[in-house]
């Protein structure tokens, strides 16, 4: 029981800290909660659950030694103050920028798997992210619109009045319908995902199928009810607007609470892949196999991995009796091919045998 409590403490600390910082920023941005829109309180509750859940999952992920190894290594290469490593630091910064643009924004890692998969993934990911970017500042009171006269709005950011624009302008129309555009992106992406699952892939009805489809169902319902709000206000003269608003808000709260513990959470994790790219790019020096002398991995990764295994009290020493050419070596010192050959010797030869070594 003591072990379980110790394991949970970092996650609880991260969650409490994230929620505290969120509420502090809401307090500051909304003028001491005075500018909070009471009709959006439900969204605020859902966002608190969302941020807390994301912090909990992130703490779990960063609590894994191998994940922490990559993250600390990337930070070391990005912010190393050693002047002699300035060139490597600049190269790491370029790698990080390229990773954010190509890997996260453009999602080229999906494009390599096919344009259809990229299109559905891009629409769902950016439809959700842009919706968050628009909605969260409004919910937190960071962004609001103050009526100036009868035909103009003034944008107020963190309590500071900024520019004024006409209500009937193209800018105003695009601004007030931005969530409609993101909702259409989500609907398009979900429809393509439905098609892929039911038409182009073999679909087996089992226990996991509902959990695979539930995120898509929630995204579709949230997007459609959001679009229905616009339809009701423009074409139906507000008919059913209150019911649609409450339904939409409940669905958004459910979705926000569900995201950190569902497959949808991976698109929030994706920026962490940039740390892995920086880590590998910076590791220019290669580790050579102790048996065949071929390069097989960045030297920094092997040494960091040796440290991670050491913290867990785990090692894989090679028995000299079975591998004469590389005494005092460990499995980490061998390339994948030599590892396979060594394991084969261990299974095929008796423990007392003395093989003469091997080369590949």
Structure description:
By secondary structure, the chain is mostly helical. It is built from 14 helices and 5 strands. The chain has helices spanning 2-29, 41-62, 65-78, 86-105, 108-111, 115-140, 170-176, 178-200, 209-235, 241-258, 266-269, 273-282, 299-311, 336-348; strands at 143-148, 152-157, 160-166, 286-288, 295-298. The strands form 2 sheets. It has a 3-stranded antiparallel beta sheet with strand order 1-2-3. A two-stranded antiparallel ribbon has the order 4-5. The protein is elongated and about 85 Å long.
Q: Helical proportion?
A: 55-70%
What is the count of helical runs? Answer: 14
Number-wise, the strands total 5
Average pLDDT value? 80
**Backbone shape:** elongated
How many domain regions?
2
Low-confidence stretches: 1-7, 320-324
* Radius of gyration over all CA atoms, rounded: 27 Å
- Which strand order spans the largest sheet, edge to edge or round the barrel? 1-2-3
Terminal CA distance reads 49 Å
Helix-strand sequence: HHHHHHEEEHHHHHHEEHH
* Class computed from helices, strands and strand pairing: mainly alpha
Could you provide a short overview of the structure?
With 360 residues, this protein is mainly alpha-helical.
Topology:
Blueprint: H1 2-29, H2 41-62, H3 65-78, H4 86-105, H5 108-111, H6 115-140, E1 143-148, E2 152-157, E3 160-166, H7 170-176, H8 178-200, H9 209-235, H10 241-258, H11 266-269, H12 273-282, E4 286-288, E5 295-298, H13 299-311, H14 336-348
Helix pairs in contact: 1-2, 2-10, 3-12, 4-12, 6-8, 8-9, 9-10
């Amino acid at each position: 029981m003591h072990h379980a409590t110790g394991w949970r403490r970092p996650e609880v600390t991260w969650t409490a800290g994230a929620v505290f910082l969120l509420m502090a920023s809401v307090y500051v941005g909304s003028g001491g909660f005075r500018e909070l829109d009471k009709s959006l309180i439900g969204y605020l509750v859902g966002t608190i659950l969302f941020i807390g859940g994301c912090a909990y999952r992130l703490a779990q992920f960063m609590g894994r030694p191998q994940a922490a190894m990559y993250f600390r290594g990337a930070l070391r290469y990005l912010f190393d103050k050693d002047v002699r490593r300035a060139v490597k630091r600049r190269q790491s910064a370029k790698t990080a920028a390229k990773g954010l643009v190509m890997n996260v924004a453009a999602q080229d890692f999906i494009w390599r798997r096919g344009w259809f998969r990229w299109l559905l993934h891009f629409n769902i990911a950016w439809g959700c992210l842009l919706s968050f970017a628009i909605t969260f500042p409004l919910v937190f009171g960071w962004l609001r619109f103050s009526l100036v006269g009868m035909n103009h709005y003034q944008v107020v950011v963190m309590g500071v009045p900024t520019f004024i624009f006409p209500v009937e302008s193209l800018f105003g129309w695009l601004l007030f319908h931005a969530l409609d555009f993101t909702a259409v992106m989500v609907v398009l992406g979900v429809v393509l995902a439905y098609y892929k699952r039911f038409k182009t892939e073999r679909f087996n009805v089992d226990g996991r199928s509902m959990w695979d489809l539930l995120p898509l169902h929630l995204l579709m319902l949230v997007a459609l009810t959001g679009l229905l709000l616009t339809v009701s206000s423009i074409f139906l003269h507000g008919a059913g607007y209150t019911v649609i608003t409450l339904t939409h808000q409940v669905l958004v709260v459910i979705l926000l609470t569900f995201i950190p513990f569902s497959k949808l959470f991976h698109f929030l994790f994706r920026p962490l892949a940039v740390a892995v790219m920086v880590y590998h790019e910076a590791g220019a020096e290669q580790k050579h196999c102790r048996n065949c002398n071929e390069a097989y991995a960045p030297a920094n990764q092997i040494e960091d991995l040796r440290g991670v295994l050491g913290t867990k009290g785990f090692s894989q020493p090679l028995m000299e009796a079975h591998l004469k050419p590389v005494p005092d070596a460990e499995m980490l010192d061998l390339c994948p091919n030599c590892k396979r050959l060594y394991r084969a010797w261990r299974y095929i030869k008796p423990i007392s045998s003395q093989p003469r070594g091997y080369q590949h």
